Amino acid sequence: MASLTYKYAAVALGGLIIGGLIVAAAFPYFTTSEKAVSPTAERKVLFWYDPMKPDTKFDKPGKSPFMDMDLVPKYADEGDAANSNGIRIDPVQVQNLGMKTVQVSKGRLQYSRTLPANVSFNDYQFVIVQARADGFVEKVYPLTLGDKVPKGTPLIDITIPEWVTAQSEYLLLSSSGGSTTQVKGILERLRLAGMPEEDIQRLRTSRSIQTRFTIKAPIDGVITAFDLRSGMNISKDKVVAQIQGMDPVWISAAVPEAVAGLLNDHSRFAVSVPAYPNHSFRIEKWTLLPSVDQTTRTLQVRLQVDNRDELLKPGMNAFLQLQSQSDEMLLIPSQAVIDTGDEQRVITVDHAGRFVPKAIRVLQATSQQTGIADGLQEGESIVANGLFLIDSEANISGALARMRQAEHDHD
Predict the structure, then answer these.
(1) Within a 10 A sphere around the Cβ of 312, how many other Cβ atoms?
(2) Interior CA angle at 16 toward 12 and 21, to 5°?
(3) What are the residues whose beta carbons fall under 8 Å from the beta carbon of 365, sequence distance 6 or more?
(4) Cβ proximity of 247 and 310 under 8 Å
(5) Running along the chain, 411 residues long, what does each successive block of 10 average in pLDDT?
(6) Torsion (CA) 325, 331, 336, 339 in degrees, nearest 10
(7) Spatial separation of the C-alpha atoms in residues 366 and 112, rounded to whole Å
(8) How many beta carbons lie within 10 A of that of residue 202, not counting itself?
(9) Can you tell me whether residue 245 is helix, strand or coil?
(10) 125: helix, strand or coil
(11) Phi and psi at residue 329, in whole multiples of 5°?
(12) Could you tell me which residue ranges the CusB-like three alpha-helical bundle domain spans (predicted)?
């Protein structure tokens, strides 16, 4: 019995010894595996910093004295400052700050905006009424500024001695056998002197001299100048009245200079007026005026609008709804563009996950999207937001400066 007990004890002791030898032999492998699984334990921290204040460095972790956030470690293997034009950022920071990337795509730049506008007279329908000869005002009809007058409305009655003399010559020649040329010459002289065509034809049919003539409105419109009085002398260069038409009218709006290139034959306009919110107005044509306002850097777009019902009054406020689109081009979000004043750049993401700044040339832009002329290719990934973090890291690693130097050396 005792010998059997000694045998069991010997077997147990031998198992313990063998197990110890196995553990001792395997120990280096376990430690190596642990190191392989946890590479971050070996990463060297250069310093800690606040992404909002990247120029200030701290020698230990903790809370930022500037913002209510933890300091971020700057590792020695980040940035690859000696060999790369890009920078690397801790993926945790990228995720925490919600950094978003998008791909460069082709499309048409869409522009839609409602612009304040105003209604004005149509200057193509503007006439100045003159007697074109010296005379006397016999009667002024009861009219004043702002009155609407239909075509043919009497304005004043006048006496023109020159017209009376020419009528006498006409009747004398036509009754005494004057040549056709002579008779026609007198009638043309009356037309050039301003005698109304209606009175000339009456002279030919009635063959009697007229001494009093009525000057009438030549178009439908509104009187904008009229200051004659009965009994006044009137000279040949005196303005009897100014009349401006009401149909159609002009509606003008200021368009940003940067948007001028988006206006084309496919542009669509719609006019609304606060006084008539449920009424639509037909636009006959539109024109982009050639000059730019030096103060506001805007151009004037002018629309000719049908106004047969005369709801639109000059001086009214209106709103112009503009919709247009560009030709096909490369598009990126406008917020992705970094504009330094001298140049425009974006931050791209290369195949290795580095953030690389690239110079671009902007073709056209709206508040939402920007069209790119060159500098990018379709399908490239760019940073759409979180650019301040990229800027912080770039300031630390000098990636932007190195890129500019590399471009300079390449040129």
Answers:
(1) 25
(2) 150
(3) 109, 258, 334, 337, 371
(4) yes
(5) 46 45 43 43 74 74 79 67 51 62 83 88 88 87 90 90 85 80 85 84 85 88 88 84 91 84 82 88 89 86 90 90 83 83 81 78 79 84 69 50 54 55
(6) -70
(7) 9
(8) 13
(9) coil
(10) coil
(11) -155, 175
(12) 162-211
Q: How many residues does the chain have?
A: 411
Enter the pTM of the model.
0.56
Amino acid at 230: S
Q: Angle 33-38-43 (CA atoms, 0-180°, nearest 5)?
A: 125
Q: In terms of Cα–Cα distance, which of 262, 248, 266 is closest to 302?
A: 248
Contacts (Cβ under 8 Å, ≥6 apart) of 300: 252, 253, 254, 255, 288, 289, 291, 293
Alpha carbon distance 286, 153 (integer Å): 32
Q: Which two structure tokens, joined as six digits, stand for 238?
A: 């005196």
Neighbours of 327 (CB within 10 A): 13
Please name every residue paired with 324 in a beta bridge, in sequence order, or none if there are none. Answer: 111
Q: Which amino acid is at 104?
A: V
Nearest CA to 303 out of 258, 261, 259, 267 is that of: 267
Residue 114 corresponds to which tokens in the numbers above? 């409602």
Structure confidence at residue 1 (pLDDT): 47
- Which pLDDT value is given to residue 36? 42
Q: What is the dihedral of CA 286, 292, 297, 300, to 10 degrees?
A: -20
User: Do the beta carbons of residue 104 and residue 330 sit within 8 Å?
Assistant: yes
